[in-house]
Amino acid sequence: MDKFKTLLIFLWALFFFFIIFLLIRHFLYLRWLKKLQSTPLDKTDIDVLNKMEVYNKLNEYEKKVIAFKIKRFKKEKEFIGIKINITNEIKTTIAFFACLPTIYNKYYCYDSLKYIYVYPYTIIYNHNNTANGIMTKEELLISGEAVGESVVIVWDEVKKEIHHNLGRNVIIHEFAHELDFENGIVDGIPPINKAFYKEWTKIMFNEYEKFKQKSILNRFLGKYSLIDSYAATNKAEFFAVMSEYYFMKPCLLKKHFPDIYKELKKFYKVQTDVC
Ligand SMILES: [Zn+2]
């Protein structure tokens, strides 16, 4: 009996110290976050950000939050270069566009994401396609990919998109998929406020169906030609592509697809239509 009692006391003590350890670790993490929040961005980071049209449109509060988020993202995520050296410019650019859609969720930092793989050029996947019993070899060109704990980004594509802003942005695209995946399934519905859910899904999915129909009939028709037809692939791609335009070509999106703009604004909250 005594032995049993001693074992019980030992287990309780172990449990107690484990809880204390978790509390101390959490306290130290919060202290680290607070310190990070009050540390200004390096001049080299600000130089990179000043080149971005969308950064210069942010208000003072948004700039303050994004600075904190960029520092945290760069410290918490592991950047892995595949045949490319990871520079500060690469890290800051990816951190900026990844965190931009989450500004109004100040302490969120893609918790399940661990690795960012950066490739210099478009990745070519050789893929065997079997349809109607006939096997064909296909080449898939990939400029980005999001798979839960890792995101793949092609740096050459990022540079092109920043230099010639046509509305597309592979970083925003892949991180929109990461946000979409937050509720466990990539279905074009990110974790939107419950109060907006019904209207949000109704409008976004109606717009998706219209877009898909127009793309099948004539993808170069009127206002539909302004948006990359990749948005017609499925609901998840529609959400990711429209998110790109929300940040990169907000005035175009607001003018031609006001309902989509309005719904995305409910989710992202960042005032992008400073035209
Ligand atoms: Zn996609």
Largest β-sheet summary: 4 strands, mixed
- Going across the major beta sheet, what is the strand order? 1-2-6-5
Contiguous helical run count: 11
Q: What is the helix fraction of residues, given as a range? A: 55-70%
Structural class based on helices, strands and sheet pairing: alpha/beta
Shape: globular
List the main descriptive attributes of the protein structure presented here:
275 residues; alpha/beta; 4-stranded mixed sheet; 11 helices; binds zinc ion; aminopeptidase activity; membrane
Question: What secondary-structure arrangement, pairings included, does this model have?
Answer:
Blueprint: H1 2-38, H2 43-50, H3 53-56, H4 60-76, E1 78-81, H5 88-99, E2 115-119, E3 123-131, E4 134-142, E5 144-147, E6 150-154, H6 155-163, H7 170-180, H8 194-218, H9 235-248, H10 250-256, H11 258-268
Parallel strand pairs: 1-2, 2-6
Antiparallel strand pairs: 3-4, 5-6
GO molecular function: aminopeptidase activity; metallopeptidase activity
Organism: Nautilia profundicola (strain ATCC BAA-1463 / DSM 18972 / AmH)
Keywords: Membrane, Transmembrane, Transmembrane helix
Descriptive overview:
The protein has 275 residues and is of the alpha/beta class. The protein has a domain at 1-27. Helices cover 56% and strands 13% of the residues. Strand 1, helix 5 (88-99) and strand 2 form a beta-alpha-beta unit. The protein is globular. Bound molecules: zinc ion. This is Zinc-dependent peptidase.
